[in-house]
Amino acid sequence: MKKKLKFRIKFNAPVVLSFGIACLAALILGWVSGGVLTELLFMSRHTALWSPMTYIRAFTHVLGHSGWEHFIGNMAYILLLGPMLEEKYGSKKVLEVILITAFVTALANYILFPRVGICGASGVVFAFILLTSFTGFKEGEIPLSFILVALIFLGKELIQGLFVRDNISNLSHILGGIVGACIGYALNRKGRS
Predict the structure, then answer these.
(1) Neighbouring-strand partners of residue 44
(2) What is the CATH code for 14-192?
(3) What value does the mean pLDDT of the chain take?
(4) pTM of structure
(5) 193 pLDDT band (50/70/90 cuts)?
(6) Which residues on adjacent β-strands are paired with residue 122?
(7) Segments in 52-133 forming alpha helices (H)
(8) 108-156 residue pLDDT tens
(9) pLDDT score, position 162
(10) Do 172 and 105 touch, CB atoms closer than 8 A?
(11) For the range 6-13, what are the long-range contacts, defined as Cβ-Cβ under 8 Å and sequence gap of 24 or more?
């Protein structure tokens, strides 16, 4: 008697998958509204400090994207790296990385670029990239993979930030990478002590 193969779909990384679904929903809402809802709900910009939306958008701006290409580029990295990070560090820590990155990038943008709005999960992508490079960390050692990733990704962002004028927030990428590196170092250092 042949045994029937059974396959089931597993919701393997609840935070990462929920984040991806929320980003997709925000993209669709923005598209349906002609960008109005993206600007209203999913774009952090310099608004009055007494407005509750200023604080809400400090976190929700990572859900918004300027279009399908922007969304797909970010989701490819998030869905590739996120489940591995969620398995290693747990859902709570991955959610903390997303929230800290969102807040840090929104705060920096609010202070340094009062006329520029930001949206997108690029900062989270860079946090995940640098956090991933710490997976083989041992006390007293700096992984060569971390050094190379930091040089390649952050170096590229610094160069583009200085010499290329586009609508990409290189500062968000750099800050996201710094958040990921700091959290990766702290988590792995604490885990090995």
Answers:
(1) 118
(2) 1.20.1540.10
(3) 86
(4) 0.85
(5) very low
(6) none
(7) 52-60, 68-89, 91-112, 122-132
(8) 989 888 888 889 999 999 899 888 887 766 666 777 877 787 788 777 7
(9) 60
(10) yes
(11) 12/83, 12/87, 13/82, 13/83, 13/86, 13/87, 13/91, 13/94
Asked if the model's pLDDT at residue 51 lies above 90, the reply is yes
Beta bridge partners of 118: 44
Q: Say whether 44 sits in a helix, a strand or coil.
A: strand
Q: How far apart are CA 7 and CA 44, in angstroms?
A: 42
- Per-position b or e across 87-105, b if 16+ CB within 10 A of its CB: ebbeeebbbbbbebbbbbb
Give the C-alpha separation, 120 to 140, whole Å: 35
Q: How far apart are the first and last CA of the chain?
A: 53
120 phi/psi in degrees, rounded to 5:
120, 160
